[in-house]
Amino acid sequence: MRFLRLDASIRVEGSVSRALADIVEQEWRRRHPDAEVVHRDLGREPLPPVWTDALAGAMTPDGSRTDDQRRAAALAAKLVDELLAADALLFAVPLYNFGLPQQVKHWIDLVITDPRGFDVDRPLLPGRPAVLVAARGGGYGPGTPRAGWDHGTPYLRRMLVDVWGLDLRTAEAELTAAGTNPAMAHLEELAREHLAGARADALRHAADIAGRLGTDAVAQVT
Ligand SMILES: Cc1cc2nc3c(=O)[nH]c(=O)nc-3n(C[C@H](O)[C@H](O)[C@H](O)COP(=O)(O)O)c2cc1C
Known about the structure:
Layout: E1 2-7, H1 16-31, E2 36-41, H2 51-59, H3 67-85, E3 88-94, H4 102-113, E4 129-135, H5 152-163, E5 167-173, H6 188-221
Parallel strand pairs: 1-2, 1-3, 3-4, 4-5
Helix pairs in contact: 1-6, 2-3, 2-4, 3-4
The protein binds flavin mononucleotide.
Flavin mononucleotide binds at residues 9, 11, 15-18, 94-98, 135-138, 176-177.
């Protein structure tokens, strides 16, 4: 059994998305103590900016690639290997400037340069269970002044669900800046409720997936 955890927050101390991802990871480890958890931390260890070489490498026959193109293609292949080897996947992604952290977009761009990720009409990970935990400083729900301004989560869902075919569940914490932004002081109680809901969702999704994987493993043996 193998899990892939991907983090994208640039902070560790106080990170809401990492704390929510910890809930999922701990539940998976509790239910599958022998499982390996592969950790790709895009926030702390950004990928090198090799997308141009990876793309050129993908278009160039193997023997004619430059060293840079070969290295970039190898990195893209490693990222796809990590995805394909995972029985379940966990993505912890904050909202930055109304969109995805650039490292997550770069990671997606690299994956798509690999021959296995190139055809966006052929799902890379059909039916594979996954959890997305998202953290946003503000509020983007229906009726709020910035409803529709979260361009990160919808894009990520488009890629993870519609392109890669993942069976995705989400746990989302909004208003995370209420504790630090004085202008949001009146939203602190609501922020606490959001966080409690997100924590409960994260645990429920993790338990559901862990249980399903266990059942599948038994079914395969018998
Ligand atoms: C560079 C940067 C840009 C951000 N942009 C937004 C934004 O556009 N909208 C928003 O609601 N919060 C924004 N935030 C706040 C984060 O979404 C919020 O702090 C979230 O909890 C970050 O995830 P983390 O707690 O896992 O670090 C931004 C934070 C940073 C560091």
